[in-house]
Amino acid sequence: TRQWQLASRPVGEPTHDNFELVTVDRPEPGPGEVLVKTLYQSVDPYMRGRMRDAESYAEPWDVGDPMKASVVGEVLESEAETFEPGDIVTGDLLWAEHAVADADELQRVDPDLGPISTAVGVLGMPGVTAYWGLRDICDPAPGDTVFVSAAAGAVGSVVGQLAQLSGARVVGTAGSDAKVEWLTEDLGFDAAINYKTEDDLYGAVAEACPNGIDAYFDNVGGEITDAVWMQLNEFSRVAVCGQIALYNETEVPMGPRKLTTLIETRATVEGFLVSDYQNRWGDALRRLSQFIQQGDLEYRENVVEGFENAPDAFLGLFEGENIGKQLVKVGER
Ligand code: NDP
Prior knowledge:
The protein is an alpha/beta fold. Helix content is 26%, strand content 26%. The chain has two domains: 2-121 and 300-329, Medium-chain alcohol dehydrogenases, catalytic domain (Quinone Oxidoreductase, Chain A, domain 1, Alpha-Beta Complex); 125-275, 3-Layer(aba) Sandwich (Rossmann fold), CATH 3.40.50.720. The chain has nine helices and 15 strands. Strands 3, 4, 5, 6, 7, 14 and 15 form a seven-stranded mixed sheet that branches. It has a six-stranded parallel sheet with strand order 10-9-8-11-12-13, with helices on both faces. The longest helix is centred in the middle third of the chain and has 14 residues, at 125-138. This is NADP-dependent oxidoreductase.
């Protein structure tokens, strides 16, 4: 069976040279373990942090080791009472075609609830991130203007739609005209800005938000956030979810400067980690799946075919190749 290992640590933008595809013996499950065949593998921006040799909220991977990923897979062999062959499961496994996992660390996926791939997307970690980050920190009220960056991504597209369901006016940024069209034509965003072609980002944000910004869900950081900052209203809320614009920087600027804005506006800025929401995970998934079933929440997946293309799928996140959740299709049931 094949797995992707970390070949070297990237400096700046990651490249193919940082990954090595190796063939290893198929592992065998021990007592309490199951052998899982990967059907879908997730690639996520936070993985960039794990390629780095620095402590962060996610532990760094070692060079020469297989990399970890959220996976949706099929149980092939089980040495645990809780699972049997044919069960569909999700969990944090490996960038691998097969992996062994402790049964306690896997969750069952109910194929009747929807496509199984959603267990690592809208009905998985990104969906829960959007749900609680928005509810707990942005706390949108009817009539508020909510701004979301990387709005056409896995997290951002859910944030924008949930904010609309709360009665807010929703504006976002995305990196292509096709994404802007999806947001405004299909998802019903009130406005969306292509930050890659917009010469005057500050002006565009101001124009798209004539009543200012009451809540900002930040996936990106950098200049987009600087432009949003200028439009924050009194008592606005900023949820700092991700800073992907900075993940490949070799020298990140040392600190926020324009904090006078926070004095003037009495705005609240709060970072959060979805892993702190373990005990409210199921509540978010239930609500999200209701919204999908009612037709109130749309989602898209960008599926890269073939395990050998997993690094391309990952690198594509930094080029904005994905609309919605970026996935790798690894195997068939
Ligand atoms: P996305 O599906 O949003 O994919 C990443 C997107 O980011 C790309 O599609 C691209 O879209 C955009 N992007 C890439 N590079 C840049 C750049 N330099 N400047 C601006 N935009 C860029 O990923 P996720 O939805 O999985 O994650 C979104 C964010 O949320 C990430 O920052 C991630 O780290 C964070 N996150 C945080 C969690 C937490 O617990 N705090 C949990 C999950 C995710 P475009 O075409 O618009 O450029």
